[in-house]
Amino acid sequence: MILPDAFDFLASPFLVPVLCTGAVFWMHSKKQKPDETSQLRQMLWGIQFEPFRQQQQLMIGLLSCLGLLLLVAAAAVRLGPLAGALALAVASLGLRPLWRLVLGKLRRLRSRNLLCSKGGSADSDLEPCEAKLPVWIVTGFLGSGKTTLVNHILRQGHRLLVIQNETGDTSLDAELVIEAAGEENVMLINGCACCQIRRDLRDLLCRVRDKGMGDVEGIVIECCGLADPRAVVQTFLLDEEMKRSLQIQEVIAVIDAAHVARHLLATTSTPAARLVEVQIAFASVLLLNKIDQCDDFDALRPAIRAINSVQILPCTYCEVDFATLFAGAGKGPCTKPWRQDGGWSPFRALTEDIQLRSICVSDHEDQQPSPEGPLPDRPQIRCISVRVWGSLELDAFNRWVLRTLQDMDVMRAKGVLAISGYDAKFAFQAVHVAFDGTVALASKWGKDERRFSEVVIIGFEVRADLIEHGLKRCRA
Ligand SMILES: Nc1nc2c(ncn2[C@@H]2O[C@H](COP(=O)(O)OP(=O)(O)OP(=O)(O)O)[C@@H](O)[C@H]2O)c(=O)[nH]1
Predict the structure, then answer these.
(1) Which positions fall inside the CobW C-terminal domain (predicted)?
(2) Residue closest by Cα to atom 5 of ligand 1
């Protein structure tokens, strides 16, 4: 008899946990978005309704899945395979979102646990890491490989929000990272003066937090190559709101093994050399990148160690093992500088006097150096950003850029180009005279989009008028 069996089944003990977990889950989903009623309830009762913690959410999700599966099993055993299949079909409607929730929570817990397993909560300086979104700060001098690293991290399949701080107007870095992260997960802050970054970054993070992070597992901030990382670190420590919801996981400095010697081993101290030192000194992880372009990278180690004694990870194209970079540091002696007595801690960013605000970068040759920039008698780094409309001829551009890199003693050049005869946008990159060639990007020019080429060139002797003139002569 099907009917009594069904009654029997309804009264079965399986139904109780299923209904309970379903009810709790439903309550939880309501609780995520506090409505006017719950706010009123809080006011009337004076009780703070705490949101569920990650582990509780996970438990609820797992219990719900288990309950639904038991329900299906009970239906199959008691009512036959047909009823089991029917119950499975109904349950699968509920299981899909549940399963997604459980997987999301597990991933988040894993990334949080990486932080905890590295001793985050054991550190008296740092607050418990639970419920805080981890933040990775990527720093390093111009062209050292920061965007390459961010792309490498994103390819590991983690859902991260990427915030880039660009020098100049070109959106090349964003174009490159968007390919790996998706457009909605990449945000830009322009400008390089650290006080400006701090305000903009804070505003941006507040907007992101208010909008809701979705299933984002963490935030990666790629600093501009001329920025002082201490300014970015301060953003997270000066603001109570930020401190409650975000936690610095690592400050990763990418060092360009091919070019760093000219800063670290130079006999005179230049603003660029001081900045490279600060970027290295303020890191918890050091990546010695581009070892394929350096004959003897071991010779650089003593100069780097003299500034910061944390572990140095040599690599090419920033291809370090993700686990080593984000979790494996726990192997062997403690490598976190803020775990060592008297060592560096993120909180030192608050007490250290930031003398080197950022290297003064001007877009115009006649611009006066800012009070925070280098002394007037020092050579000034210029960042020139030039846009020309129309398409360029590829060979003419390649010839021009190679000549310009040598003639103007360029430190860094990059840009997005419109090349005649191609729908795809093109990119070019150069660090000093190392020109990486001109490559097609995944993104294409729109049918009605007005084509242009935009280049950013950074160096001591770069001149906007010559760059504009040269680029115009490359037009098809
Ligand atoms: N040969 C070689 N080239 C590399 C390596 N890593 C990065 N590059 C190249 O170096 C150039 C600069 O790399 P990016 O990742 O854009 O450097 P960045 O630090 O983000 O540059 P900025 O944001 O302008 O400061 C690109 O052309 C990369 O392809 C490496 O290990 N070896």
Answers:
(1) 382-475
(2) 317
Domain CATH for 403: 3.30.1220.10
* Tokens standing for residue 44: 């009337």
Ligand 1 centroid distance, CA of 430 (Å): 8
Q: Please state, in angstroms and as integers, the Cα–Cα distance from residue 464 to each residue in 345, 353, 378, 419, following that order.
A: 41, 34, 20, 21
Q: What is the pTM of this model?
A: 0.63
* Ligand 1 contact, 361 CB (< 6 A): no
Where would I find the H helices in 194-298? Answer: 194-211, 229-238, 240-245, 261-264, 271-281
Span from the CA of 309 to the centroid of ligand 1 (angstroms): 24
- For residue 336, give the nearest of 118, 155, 135 by alpha carbon: 118
User: Tokens at residue 423, please?
Assistant: 């729908």
Residue at 455: amino acid letter: V
Is 298 within the bounds of a domain? yes
196 domain-assigned: yes
Do 142 and 214 belong together in one domain?
yes
| C-alpha 283 – ligand 1 centre gap (Å) | 19
pLDDT tens column, 280-329:
888 888 899 999 998 888 889 988 888 888 888 999 999 987 666 665 33
Same domain, 277 and 137: yes
